[in-house]
Amino acid sequence: MIELRDLHQDDMSVLYKWRQEPDVDRWLFERPPTGFSEHSEWFARFMGDPDREGWIILQDGVPCGFLSLIGVTSTQRRAAWKWYIGEADARGRGAGRAAQALGLDRAFAAKGLQKVWSEVHAANDAALKAQAAAGFRREGYLRRHSFKDGEFRDVVLLAILAEEWAARREGILRGLSASGLIAR
Q1: Short-list 5, 7, 155, 181, CA closest to 101
Q2: Of 53, 68, 112, 154, which residue has the fewest beta carbons closer than 10 angstroms?
Q3: Domain tally for the chain?
Q4: Contact 165/135 with Cβ under 8 angstroms?
């Protein structure tokens, strides 16, 4: 079963571990922290920023990933979306799909957002497919927009609107529940 729980101080170490994983880092825009103290500073800034919300993705009660919204206090009622599955054995098993559905429910119902948007490296097929399955639509393509590991990368802009999620919500949640990925 996939669930989201609020981020708390005890999650700092697992997030550090995940950010060091090459299979996670390759798709992140920022470089991984050079040490735990740098990560600790990032974590403190994240936790202290009222404009950010973070959740740990749980698979059968065990942390397996991270999902966040940045911009939740904006008067524009839109926020940037970032997520990853940190545990290798949870990837490709629906954890990302389920976490996105749960996260979109929180973004639109609990936070009252009108739009959730994201930037995804163009070569990250798994994330592009997962976000498309949740109802995200392509809004743009930024050439050579991200620079990491000595190379420029293209980025796809994706977004979903509150009414688009509302139209897809029931079918997506029903399917995730039927497959045993979420409780309803």
Answers
A1: 181
A2: 112
A3: 1
A4: yes
Beta 52-59 vs 62-70: how paired, if at all? antiparallel
Confidence at 31, pLDDT banded by 50, 70, 90: confident
Distance CA 174, CA 184 (A): 8
Q: What is the pLDDT of residue 27?
A: 92
Q: Which two tokens stand for residue 155?
A: 């980025």
Instruction: Region of 99 please: left (phi>0), alpha (psi -120 to 50) or beta.
Output: alpha
pTM above 0.90, yes or no: yes
CATH classification at residue 129:
3.40.630.30
How far does Cα 167 stand from its chain's mean position?
21
Q: Which of 10, 31, 9 is nearest to 20 (CA)?
A: 31
In a domain? residue 92: yes
Distance between the two ends of the chain, CA-based, in angstroms? Answer: 11
Decide if 74 contacts 51 (C-beta within 8 A).
Answer: yes
Is 184 within a domain? no
pLDDT at 32 over 90: no
- Alpha helices per DSSP H over 49-182: 95-105, 125-134, 162-178
